[in-house]
Each structure stands twice: as C-alpha cells, then as structure tokens.
Design a protein that fits this description.
Metal Binding Protein, Guanine Nucleotide Exchange Factor, Chain A, 5-stranded antiparallel sheet, 2 helices, CENP-V/GFA domain-containing protein, Mss4-like_sf
C-alpha cells in the first residue's frame, strides 16, 4: 500500500479524502480516485516535452486509491520514454491523455483536465511548476528491492 509521502505533492497529515471521478472524451475509460479537497492542494505543471505537448496539469494519488470504473488496464494505451519509469496513459479510441502511472513509486498522476466538473482556473491558482526537462527518475537495487531515486537537478521547483 503506497502512502501519500511517496507523492510528488504530499498530502497534509490526516487530511480527509474525497472521491473524484473522471475519464476520457469518448467515455471508454472512466476512473475514480481519492484525494484531499482538490482545490486545497497544489496541482503540478511540468515542462518536459511530453507534459508540455499534452497540456498536463497533474493531481496525484497513491496507486491503490485509483481505480478504473469503465474499461480495463489492458485497454489503455501507454507510452514511455527516457528512463521508462513513467507510463503516460491514453484512451486508444479518442486519444485523451488520462495521466501517468508510476508503479515503482506507487502513484498515479491524473490529468486534471479529465476530472469531471473541474474548475481549471480555480485549480491553477495553486499551481506548482516543475522543470521536468531537468528531472531524472531512476531506480536502484537495494537489498533486493527496487527503490526509487529522484534527482530534481535544476528544476526551478516552486
């Protein structure tokens, strides 16, 4: 079970969580996830080539707090590049960028643009910008277990 301490944006200790729903444009892929009150937490904007080209604005949840309610993992298209740790996930029918899965870190980054009823203007008032062009993600062997390692480099993390 992943904890919120592994998330890029950590949740406040003991914060109540709420259920949110979302999905792709054609409704082939639908999901729900738990998250603290979505406007009380920073969302993340990354300038790496992939995130910038897709217009991602991320909210994060532990992997065990995200579930598909329509469609299956096998039906989602994925794309990885560079370290191949981050799985960018898309609907194969309409092409909607649903978000990212990062199994070795135990979290899901949900593209906030796919969350039902989201007020993007309000969400963007609490936006954390990350210089993903300088971000290095890797995994290392430690005692037989895969351990994530992050080097933010010169990220301009704000």
């Amino acid at each position: 079970m992943a904890s919120s301490s592994s998330l890029p944006i950590q949740w406040p200790e003991g914060a109540p969580t709420f259920n949110y729903q979302g999905g792709c444009h054609c409704k082939k892929i639908r999901f729900q996830f738990e998250h603290p009150e979505i406007y009380s937490m920073p969302a993340l904007s990354c300038n790496c080539s992939m995130c910038a080209s897709r217009g991602y604005i991320f909210v994060y949840t532990p992997q065990d707090k995200f579930k598909l309610t329509q469609g299956s993992e096998d039906e989602i298209s994925q794309y990885t590049f560079a370290s191949h740790i981050v799985q960018h996930r898309f609907c194969p029918t309409c092409g909607t960028a649903i978000g990212v899965l990062v199994p070795s870190y135990g979290y899901v980054g949900i593209n906030a643009r796919t969350v039902d009823g989201i007020d993007l203007e309000r969400l963007q008032k609490n936006l954390t910008k990350v210089n993903g062009r300088e971000l290095t993600l890797s995994t290392t062997e430690d005692g037989g277990e895969l351990k994530p390692s992050v080097s933010w480099g010169n990220t301009g993390r704000q």
